[in-house]
Structures are given as C-alpha cells and as structure tokens.
Target: AAA+ ATPase domain-containing protein
Amino acid sequence: MMMMGDTFGSIGSSIASLFFVWATIQQIFPNHLKIAIKEFILSSFQQLCFAQRVSDHLTNLFSPYVEINFPESDEYRYNHAFSAIETYLGSKATEKSKLLKGSQVKESKGLVLKRDEKKIRDEYKGANVWWEIVTPTEGERSYKLTFHNRARSLITESYIQYVLEEGKSIKAKKKQTKLFTNNPSSQWVFSQNMWRFIDFEHPASFETLAMDPEKKEEIMNDLTAFRNGKDYYKKIGKAWKRGYLLYGPPGTGKSTMISAMANFLNYNIYDLELTAIKNNSELRKLLTATSSKSIVVIEDIDCSVDLTGNRIKKDRNSMERNRGQDKDENSVTLSGLLNFIDGIWSACGQERIVVFTTNHLEKLDPALIRRGRMDMHIELSYCTYEAFTILAKNYLDLDDHPLFGKIKSLLKETEISPADVAENLMARNHQVDVEGSLNNLIKALEKKKNSQMSKDEKKNNKFRIFG
Model:
C-alpha cells in the first residue's frame, strides 16, 4: 500500500510537467498540431485524476487504521472534549519526549516543561494509539486520533472516555481561576478567539470584605446553596443559573465583592464589555462560548449601552435619523439582554452566575432587574462601624482602640465609602502607624461631615427662598 501511495504521490508533479510542455508547444508547433496535442494532454489529465480517485478509494478500503477528529468547537460552541484531550496529553511524562517546550508564566514559579510534539503515541490495555494536533492555516484546530481497526471497540467504548475523565480531573486539580474579556467581533476567526484571558489573582475574600457580617453570611449561604443546587434546579425545572445585582455609590466594594465571589466558588470571571458587541446575535455567541462554573459580569450596566429608563417608542423622525447611521453602531437591545439573562439561550450551560453592577439603580429598566432575572439585590452602601472594624483588622491588625468610640460616632453622621476609609488606614511607606492612621481617618471624617452639613444648609436655604 505504501508503494502505491508513493507511485500516485508523483501525480501532482506529472501534471505540472504536462502544463509546462503545453506552454512550450504553444510557441513552436502550428495550429493543427496544437489542437491534436491539446486533446492528448486533456485525455491524459483525465486519466490521472481517475487514477488518483481509484488510489484514494483503494487506500481507504484496505487501510487497517481508523481516525477520529476532535475539533476545537462544534459549530460555534466550544468543544470541551478538545480541552480535556489537550490537558491529558500535556500531562504525559516528558522523560522520553525529544521535543519539549519551556515556559515561565509567573516569576515566583519555576520553569515548566511540556511536550511540544505534533504526534504523541499512547498505549491503553495493550493497544497503541497516536494523537496528532492538526492546525490548518485557516479554520479551527483539532486533535486526530489514529488506531488499528481491531481495537475499535476498546478505543471508542473505553479509552476515549478514560482520556476525557483524566483530562477533566487533572484540570480540576490544577485549576487556576481565569479572568476573561471579550474581543471585538472583527478579531473572531470562525467563531473562535471570542474571549481572551489572564490568570485571576485578586486576593479578595469574604473574610476581608468590609461589610455587615450578617449580610455577608447571607450572601455566602446563598452562593453555597447555588453551588450545591444541581438536583434542586432540575427538580423545579429551572436552568441552573442565578442573578446578582450589586448597587450603591462608587467605592463601596462592588468589584471587590465579585472577586470575593469568584475566589469563594473557584469560578472563572467573564467580564462582558457590551460596547464591543455589535448586535444581539454576537451577544448570544459570546454567552454560548462561556464555560460552566463561571460568573458573567456586566459592570456599570447603566453606562454600557442605552438600556436605561422606560421603553418609550422613538418618534418617526428619530427612526429616520437612525437609518442613516453607521451599521457598525452598537445595537445590543434591552430585549437581547433579557434573553441573554433568562431566555432560551441562557440555559445553554450549567452552573452560571450573572452579576450586574450599577451606581444608579433608579436608571435601570425594571424588567432588567426583576426577581427571576436578578434574583438577589445586594446594596453596598457607605461604611458602617462594623465594616470599619474589619478594615482596621485588615490594615492595622487592630481589634480595639480608645479612638474607636469617636470613629463610631462620626461614622453614624457621615457618608464615606469603605474605599476612602481604607485609604486613610493604609500604611505609609510600608510602616504601620496606628495612632497616625486613626487620627488621619478622624480628620477625614470630620472634614466630610462638615462638607455634608454645608451642602444640607444650602439646600435648606434654597427651599426657604422658594417656600
């Protein structure tokens, strides 16, 4: 068979030679000879193509080997079998490999050596198999598995399942939380490369989160119930997903809350930038390309696209103006976002959390944040005394101090964000000065209090004038 393959492998060069000969003939021979020679060359070409087809058919008919391809995506959904295979093959011992790849992604970690071979041989219960990564110039990557036909049942019924389970197990043990953000659709290649990511290394935790302990406990219990709720969601006939709305003034810890949630659950974060999405169709594709055990985040949703206020129909003049605008203008609609949250497409995945953040709750359409879409509304407000004690422990390693009483009194009368409190407690030049930090905070609180009292007086005077 190999000799036959080598023989017909020269067909391509033979055809090229025929075309070269024909070009030469064009310059030398008279017209009647040209026509006769042309018919002969065409006849020979047809015979060669027929021979090639016969050769391919015979090779496929008599070859004892079977091939299975595992593409990186199935239509526009990510193929998780590809990921599991990649992890499994990457974990194979490197001692016998002659081609290795070295990388150091973190300065604190040593050099990591991995196989860098296009073909990898594996053995399973006495059967030999060969894996090959196929990377075409255009299109998606795939893994090709080749094995002898006599081992078909062993490979298809046992080995492949073993590889997938091993790959998923290895990935779970080594899992590093990732932070994803969406690429503009102009950078997508055959529905690939939708998301780019980095390792997520934010140290936030619920233990260090500055908020009321009872509210914190409530959120943690809700997250735990969701993570363990697969059977419950199936029983009640709902998609295994949950929505959280985080709202409050700037600096009150909304982004930190998301980081704490991700670290608590060990879920990946998908930071969805709506302004980089052209339409609802792209929004659906991005959703289906996210993995399970993930948190999909849209921060400052009131600022992302025009989804605020009541759904009032625009007048005809406005519609006419919009028709003349650039087609590439962002056209993600409220309806498309609602389908993204809890429509049919939202069920394409398991164990997924959707989080919205906003500084202006009153600007959001009620349909967007109703219960069932945003199941839990979490207000992150100004710093309370309970939140301050957590910050004092985090920054100053302090449980109590004589100045705490004065700070407690000022916090009751002053609106200040936890971020501002933390800034005053932070060590200067890495030197902790307890007295200095607490006094700085007291000065900041008194200044804030006076400023707020001055604003209130101006408002009262304004009402007196017009009253």
Observations:
- The domain at 178-309+328-379 is CATH 3.40.50.300 (Rossmann fold).
- DSSP finds 17 helices and 15 strands in the chain.
